[in-house]
Amino acid sequence: MSDRDTLFSAPIASLGDWTFDERVAEVFPDMIQRSVPGYSNIISMIGMLAERFVQPGTQVYDLGCSLGAATLSVRRNVHHEGCRIIAVDNSPGDG
């Protein structure tokens, strides 16, 4: 369960570059649900499209996977032998 997003509820003295850091990661599920209309439907549709179009023995790439919601949706819907799902994100992290 994520925390409620209150990162930008207070005034900011000066704007800098936005970064996906640990503070954002902690509240990201709440942030994206409130910021992107139909986000849950989009994630579900990604899984349905993957089920329809992904072929056995192929690779699926989720580039810019963030916390992996779309990756998980693909995984839950694709059941082919030998299909690999590769999730890549360039946000800095500890691991």
UniProtKB/TrEMBL annotation:
GO terms for biological process: methylation. InterPro entries: SAM-dependent_MTases_sf. One of its GO terms (molecular function) is methyltransferase activity. It is an enzyme of class 2 (transferase). It comes from the Bacteria. Keywords: Methyltransferase, Transferase. Its EC number is 2.1.1.-. This is tRNA (Cmo5U34)-methyltransferase. It comes from Enterobacter asburiae. The gene is cmoA_1.
